[in-house]
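so i finally got all the pieces together for this one. its two components total, 279 residues if u count the protein bits. some of the lines might not be protein, just check the labels. i wanna see the whole assembly predicted at once instead of chain by chain like last time, that was a mess tbh
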Amino acid sequence: MQVDWLHFTPWSAIIGGALLGLASGLLALWAGKIAGISGILGGLLNASSDMAWRGFFIMGMLLTPLLWLTFKTPVDIQISASTPAIVLAGLLVGIGTRYGSGCTSGHGVCGLSRFSIRSLAAVTSFMGAGFVTVFLTQHLF
Amino acid sequence: MLKITALFSGMLFSLGLIISGMVNPAKVIGFLDLAGMWDPSLALVMAGAIATATPFFVWAKRRKYTLLTQEKMSLPDSKIIDRPLITGSILFGMGWGLAGICPGPGLVALAMGAPKAFIFVAAMLLGMFIFNLLPKKP
């Protein structure tokens, strides 16, 4: 393993991460909700009774990028995967996060922050699968 | 109050994703690529997020009612590690590694106008929709 010092951004990572933690922590303390993006989106597709807060959370998530583009310069978004790979990835993420009850936010940030053993198992599984998949796609195929 | 709280939290969450650099799939792939040039940034994003969120969750767990909405506090407390949890997480990890995009950054990249993020989110919503159609265990 070689560390990519050129692209390593420790300070923005820690500060951005702290904002993710703050957003998740406040939502839990103030409203008792888990800031799990896949769970929030999945609930919106289910016509459940608590659609409103989910809709407002997603609106907030979409609003910040629009404000950012209005006042700041665009950020780097490099997606190197081909379109068919993106479609397959999207399907896998959609089904997998619902089947596994969470993603990087719900199991990762919120789950690990409340010491959930279930979320630790989920994070280990998707991190492991991510490492293996990237090894296969970047180095073998 | 719940709606305003959710809107504010969503905005803050999105800002965190932008500032952390996790909106860029190339950076996520850089973290997942242990055998190549490894970018440890994502580990620090998680560390920063967990270190910040933990005191809030500890506080929230001690409370009977939520601080702002004054509803009964009911955060999940399941400890069951079953096959759906692991299988689903592995499928998610495969998709995550394939494109470098998970649900949150996908939405933010979409709002920033990345065409491939639009395709990703559409496929992800389709996947979630398909999941909803699958028969559920009682």
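The helical segments of chain A are 10-31, 37-44, 51-71, 83-99, 104-113, 117-140.
Chain A touches chain B through 112 residues (CB under 8 Å).
anyway lmk what u think
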